[in-house]
Amino acid sequence: MSPVVIYTAVPCGYCSAAKRFFESQEIPYMEIDLTGNRDARMDLMKKTGQRTVPQIFVGDTHIGGYSELVALHGQGGLEPLLQGDA
Q1: How far apart are CA 7 and CA 63, in angstroms?
Q2: Rounded distance, CA 55 to CA 69, Å?
């Protein structure tokens, strides 16, 4: 299974929702909390082009935030990424 990494900050309702999603699907993930770490947040912005959290990666694939996660799952695209088939 491809590793899932979620970049988060506190407070963030969408971060909590993304973590609940993965937990409800029994998908393990690693959380990287960027709260108060301006440099790490700027590095993430350079990497993704996004200023918001959560930012979610499955393996090397950046899928975006919570809304993109839910859309990808609804389209059947999450499972292939998790299995490394995409």
Answers
A1: 12
A2: 10
Q: What span, in angstroms and rounded, lies between the C-alpha atoms of 36 and 58?
A: 24
Query: How large is the average pLDDT for residues 2-20?
Result: 97
The answer for 59, left when phi > 0, alpha when psi is -120 to 50, beta otherwise, is left
SS3 state of residue 8:
strand
Enter the pTM of the model: 0.94
Which residues have a Cβ under 8 Å from the Cβ of 45 and sit 6 or more positions away? 51
Whether 78 contacts 72, CB under 8 Å: yes
- The alpha carbon of residue 32 and the mean position of all alpha carbons in its chain are separated, in whole angstroms, by 10
